[in-house]
């Protein structure tokens, strides 16, 4: 049995209701070709506002910084705005470490964030993956909804891309759907007909409200964005994992493109949406809940509710 069969237990896709850290810890090393995650800003956990200072300590350090240097954190007190970030990064860090571990040597990691968090997360990812493994910052630009007149209206998300090994990672530009040239008259008819490879700035509208693609899950991302990621960064037949899967967009793209998928979410509603969405695409999808989670659980059950995203915590794309 290959590591991938270990992960999927022979299915085309597996959807798991669980805290992703528990699932990650159970996966074999180097078993996943592509990881895409779009974590919420608010983890749903009670936020403890702590103020931390870190000092260099190779012996008893509890954090790893640049170049693998160890630091010890000292709690100074409470009530600092930075503490929110600190909590967020504390939540992400062990999950990112595990995600790196389960990536195959040719694997890629995509982290979807917004401009408020991406810079903090970039520093953390550089420490975990290595700065030399940073491949791209993709800007997903959309143009929808109200525009403030007090600053430049914020209409983009950031997707950080890392390779497990910068010399070996899978990237198939030929598999990516090409896009029209902005000035086709300048490139000649043959090139104009073929179109061009997208750059690191992707113009793509949000999932249209009321459209066919809409699942009703609040933070659903367009399948076109995931299609581009999966076609470039996962070999045909390979395994795509999304550990903050929401409505299962990464699974929908994987299924459409002949890849397999593992989707994890701690919200029973997300699992219901995914199961419905992906069952329609063909058989071979296993849906399960790990101990302590139940798809039939009342939404206020403490062990589930503690991990469920607070509605509105992830800023929704503007209506
Ligand atoms: C922004 S949404 C993902 C949306 C998804 N990309 C889509 O297209 O539908 C983030 C998801 O992470 C889930 N989540 C938050 N904390 C989690 C955890 N510890 N384990 C698993 N899922 C978690 C939330 O329930 C939510 O569905």
Tally of extended strands?
12
The CATH architecture name reads: 3-Layer(aba) Sandwich
Mean pLDDT: 83
Percent in strands: 15-25%
CATH superfamily: Vaccinia Virus protein VP39
Bound molecules: S-adenosylmethionine
- Element order, helices and strands? HEHEEEEHEHEEHEHEHEHEH
Domain unit count? 1
Biggest pleated-sheet summary: 9 strands, mixed
Q: What is the alpha-carbon Rg in Å? A: 20 Å
Examine the coordinates and then state which fold CATH places here, giving the name of the CATH topology: Rossmann fold
User: What spatial order of strands do you see in the largest sheet?
Assistant: 9-7-8-6-2-10-11-1-12
Helix content estimate: 25-40%
| Tally of helical runs | 9
Cα(first) to Cα(last) distance is: 47 Å
Assign an overall shape: globular
Unreliable spans are 42-51, 77-85, 295-319
CATH C-level class = Alpha Beta
Query: Which structural category fits the helices and strands?
Result: alpha/beta
Question: Brief description of this entry?
Answer:
This protein has 319 residues and is α/β, with parallel strands linked by helices. It contains nine helices and twelve strands. It has a single domain (3-46, 81-305), classed as Vaccinia Virus protein VP39 (Rossmann fold, 3-Layer(aba) Sandwich).
Give a structural overview:
This protein starts with a helix and ends in a 14-residue tail after the last helix. The chain has 319 residues and is of the alpha/beta class. The chain is built from 9 helices and 12 strands. It has helices at residues 3-8, 20-26, 82-102, 118-129, 189-194, 223-233, 249-256, 268-279, 302-305; strands at residues 13-17, 32-37, 50-56, 63-64, 70-78, 103-113, 134-141, 156-163, 201-203, 239-242, 260-265, 285-289. It has one domain (3-46, 81-305): 3-Layer(aba) Sandwich (Rossmann fold), CATH 3.40.50.150. Helix 2 runs parallel beside helix 3 (82-102) and helix 6 (223-233) packs across helix 7. Helices cover 27% and strands 23% of the residues. Mean pLDDT is 83; it is low at 42-51, 77-85 and 295-319. Bound molecules: S-adenosylmethionine.
């Amino acid at each position: 049995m290959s590591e991938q069969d270990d992960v999927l237990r022979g299915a085309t896709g597996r959807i798991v209701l669980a805290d992703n850290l528990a699932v990650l810890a159970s996966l074999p090393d180097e078993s996943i070709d592509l990881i895409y995650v779009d974590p919420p800003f608010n983890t749903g956990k009670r936020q403890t506002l702590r103020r931390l200072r870190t000092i260099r300590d190779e012996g008893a350090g509890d954090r790893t910084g640049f170049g693998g240097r160890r630091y010890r954190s000292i709690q100074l007190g409470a009530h600092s705005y930075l503490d929110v970030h600190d909590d967020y990064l504390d939540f992400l860090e062990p999950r990112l470490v595990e995600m790196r571990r389960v990536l195959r040597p040719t694997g890629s990691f995509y982290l979807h964030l917004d401009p408020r968090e991406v810079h903090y997360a970039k520093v953390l990812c550089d420490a975990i993956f290595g700065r030399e493994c940073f491949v791209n910052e993709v800007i997903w630009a959309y143009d929808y909804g109200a525009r403030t007149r007090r600053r430049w209206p914020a209409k983009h998300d950031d997707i950080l891309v890392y390779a497990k090994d910068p010399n070996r990672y899978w990237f198939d530009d030929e598999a990516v759907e090409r896009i029209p040239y902005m000035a086709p008259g300048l490139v000649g008819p043959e090139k104009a007909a073929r179109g061009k490879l997208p750059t690191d700035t992707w113009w793509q509208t949000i999932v249209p409200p009321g459209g066919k693609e809409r699942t009703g899950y609040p933070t659903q991302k367009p399948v076109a964005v995931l299609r581009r990621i999966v076609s470039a960064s996962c070999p045909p037949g390979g395994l795509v994992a999304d550990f903050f899967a929401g409505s299962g967009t990464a699974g929908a793209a994987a299924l459409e493109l002949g890849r397999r998928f593992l989707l994890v979410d701690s919200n029973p509603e997300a699992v219901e949406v995914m199961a419905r969405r992906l069952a329609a695409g063909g058989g071979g999808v296993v849906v399960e809940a790990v101990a302590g989670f139940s798809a039939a659980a009342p939404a206020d059950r403490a062990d589930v509710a503690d991990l469920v995203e607070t509605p509105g915590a992830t800023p929704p794309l503007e209506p």
